[in-house]
Structures are given as C-alpha cells and as structure tokens.
Amino acid sequence: MKRKAFRPAPRPISFKPTRRDLRRGMVLVPLLILAGALFDPALIPPFGPLAKREVVAATFTPCGPGRGVACVIDGDTFKLGDRNIRIVGIDAPELAEPRCPQEAALARRSADRLIALLDQGPFDMVAHRLQTQDRYGRELMVLERGGDSIGSQLIDEGLAHRYIGSKRSWC
Known about the structure:
Number of domains: 1
Pfam family, one: SNase
Strand content: 15-25%
Protein name: Thermonuclease family protein
Order of helices and strands: HEEEEEEHEEEHE
Number of strands: 10
Structural class: alpha+beta
Organism: Sphingomonas cremea
Domain TNase-like: 69-160
Radius of gyration: 25 Å
Helix content: 25-40%
InterPro entries: SNase_OB-fold_sf, Staphylococal_nuclease_OB-fold
C-alpha cells in the first residue's frame, strides 16, 4: 500500500507588512509624492520643458460695461481678450456672489490690488504643459514678475488664501 506524502495545511494569508514591504514603502511613497508635486503647479511652479511662458504687457480694468481688452473678474481670475485666466495656487474672495459683507469688502480690495499689481508693468504668465485648464475652461497660469509670484504677494497681503483643492470661508 502506497502512503501519501504528508502535506501541512497552508498558512492563512497574512496582511501584516514585512520589513521588506516597509522598506519598499519608505522609498516609494516619497517618490510618488514628489512626482505628484511636479505635476501640480500650485505646489511647485512649472519649470524647464513643463513650462510654457508668455509675456503680458496690458492695462487692466475691472470687468463690466465698457471694459477694455484686459479686465479683472476677481482677485484670482482675469480676462485677456477672449481668454479667461485663473491664477494657480490662490483662492481670492468671490466678487460676484459674496456670502457676507466682509467677503464683499475683501473681494473688492483683492480685485483692486490685482489690477494694481498687473498694471505695474510686463509680467510672465507660466502655464504647466500637462495641466492647462480647470474644469470651468479657464486657463491655469502662474504669474511672475522678476521671479516673484504675484499670487504669493496677494497671499502675503491677506487678500487671498493658498488654494490646494478646497476653499475656506472668508466670513
């Protein structure tokens, strides 16, 4: 009579990470975060082959009746001819539909300050080649003058928040 070879019961599947898995994760996670940041112009401005630059020299006015070719919609959006342009990385108060009187006042100040900043002379609009428009069809641009970000200046002056995917209340 032939005996069957003894085979132990298979071990149950373990979801506990091993040291090898942890080491692999310690290398992989930072690399994925860095790769994501390279493609998000709000975190790292576009550079090298990812950047598409254009120089703008125009006189800006508030948007509305009798507006010029270049006008400011609110503190983070403006029109340049037929193009709607959204400044990447900032969120300014809404001028069209403010939620409270404080937001309305800050929105007016923010839009006026953006007009003043844009009218100081030529500036660079830098687009990220991989992310050119938002879901509303506006062109996404980083604005720079002399290597300094115009959006960061609005944030520093308290007229805008840093935008990283969600809005905060102005009230």
